[in-house]
Amino acid sequence: MTLDPREPVDVAIVGAGVIGAATAYYLAQAAPHLRIALLEQDHVGSGSTARSFAAYRKQFRSRIHVLASAVSQREFERFEEIAGHDVGLRQIGYLFLYRDPEALERAAGAVALQRECGVDDVVVLRGDDVRGRFPFVDSPVAGATWCPSDGYLDPLAVAAGYAEAARRLGVAIVQGTRVDAVEVAGGRVQGVRLGQDLVRAEQVVLATGAWMRALAPHVPIAPVKRYVYISPRIKERDVSGFPMTVLDLGPYVRSEARESLAWGFDERPTELAPGEIPRAAPLPPEPDYAIEPGYGRDHDEYGFEILLRLSEAIGFFLEEEIGIADASCGYYEVTPDHRVIIDRDPGIGGLVLAAGASGHGIMHAPAYGMLTADLLLDRPARLEGGREAFALGPLLAGEARPDPETMII
Ligand SMILES: Cc1cc2nc3c(=O)[nH]c(=O)nc-3n(C[C@H](O)[C@H](O)[C@H](O)COP(=O)(O)OP(=O)(O)OC[C@H]3O[C@@H](n4cnc5c(N)ncnc54)[C@H](O)[C@@H]3O)c2cc1C
């Protein structure tokens, strides 16, 4: 639909990825009287949402991430009620393999926290139990953690489902329209600028993911290009239930569309000191999804290097000469501590930031959408500790936020 710029809105949400779309839905649901617009430069879900690995897990080391995962999984499981269609949940499980005994002990500590937060199907497996249960692991490992109800889903079904449900609740969804600027006067947002037009808004939410700094240069979110690879159909063995398997918190692989495998990893440094971020180049308006030299499908390129790393624990990748049918890339939207920002801007009244999920935005989109809606409505956060854990202030001051995450892949 087109938005009449003469009609002011209460809330303009910029960016219709999973987080913007979820925010629009939970906000409209909680406050049906509000006039809400969701503005997207391309189409719903076309940013990082369309390019993700689509996996979801409850295995994190920080309490807030475990809670965000648990709340989100509940929403995914009842998604049909929200949107009229499901999100294609495939609960193939998540298996974190560790070769280093100390790393396994740290992971076992995280499992205790996850169980305390209500994730009752996550377990620690030690030594030969891993190989007994997962015969594809054919080299010695110290152990693993395993959660069978983790898995993957269809990210576009999530984004499109939330957007459609929001539209049914009266949200105006405008696609193919770039927001050129957030209009500010007297320290408060006035609205958003679309070319010559100003759409007036009481509050503006930037849910623009990796593109955040084009509209808010002071917000520490850096785009980091990441690759994923897909094998051709594998006829020699049944890979339909191959769990999401992560080796030493590094390379990972899972089944894809039942007859293939998909894998990824990125060794390029993603630990970004706060001072470094402002110097990182902002993403151009048209993101570059070209496959860089060295990241293609050939045997001497990165996709095979990842397989080689994985084959240190899973030998059949090499024995059966698994190849690469497709390589694709997208952008992680990375904050200094790999955790989303959901906060009011300290310097601009009425501006709310909701981005920077740093590689777990799909799996946490329902929780982040709820929290952003709570913030816009000045209601207590539905997730205990969410305000502090996702605050912008400490990042701007170069300080650590509470409850840090270290299970980052
Ligand atoms: C290779 C890869 C693998 C990943 N794997 C996983 C995974 O397994 N599990 C998981 O949970 N997450 C994963 N992620 C991360 C996940 O994709 C993101 O965290 C999530 O999509 C972020 O959603 P978002 O809504 O914040 O951003 P986006 O989906 O990028 O949405 C932002 C939207 O804002 C729009 N926009 C930007 N600027 C403007 C403007 N000026 N005007 C109008 N619109 C604008 C963009 O077009 C875009 O649609 C992966 C990401 C990549 C790249």
Describe the protein's architecture and organization:
With 409 residues, the chain is an alpha/beta fold. It has a domain at 9-54 and 155-222 and 336-396: FAD/NAD(P)-binding domain, CATH 3.50.50.60. The chain is 27% helix and 23% strand. It has twelve helices and 18 strands. It has helices at 18-30, 63-77, 79-83, 101-116, 128-133, 155-168, 212-215, 302-310, 316-319, 361-376, 386-389, 393-396; strands at residues 9-14, 36-39, 55-56, 94-98, 123-126, 143-147, 151-152, 172-174, 181-185, 188-194, 197-206, 222-230, 244-247, 252-256, 260-265, 326-334, 341-344, 351-355. Strands 1, 2, 8, 9, 10, 11, 17 and 18 form an eight-stranded mixed sheet that branches. Helix 1 links the parallel strand 1 (9-14) and strand 2. Helix 2 crosses helix 10 (361-376). It starts with 8 loop residues before the first strand and ends in a 13-residue tail after the last helix. The model has no long low-confidence stretch (mean pLDDT 93). Bound molecules: flavin-adenine dinucleotide (FAD). Flavin-adenine dinucleotide is lined by residues 14-20, 39-42, 46-49, 51-56, 178-179, 207-211, 214-215, 226, 228, 330-333, 355, 357, 359-363. Flavin-adenine dinucleotide binds at residues 14-20, 39-42, 46-49, 51-56, 178-179, 207-211, 214-215, 226, 228, 330-333, 355, 357, 359-363.
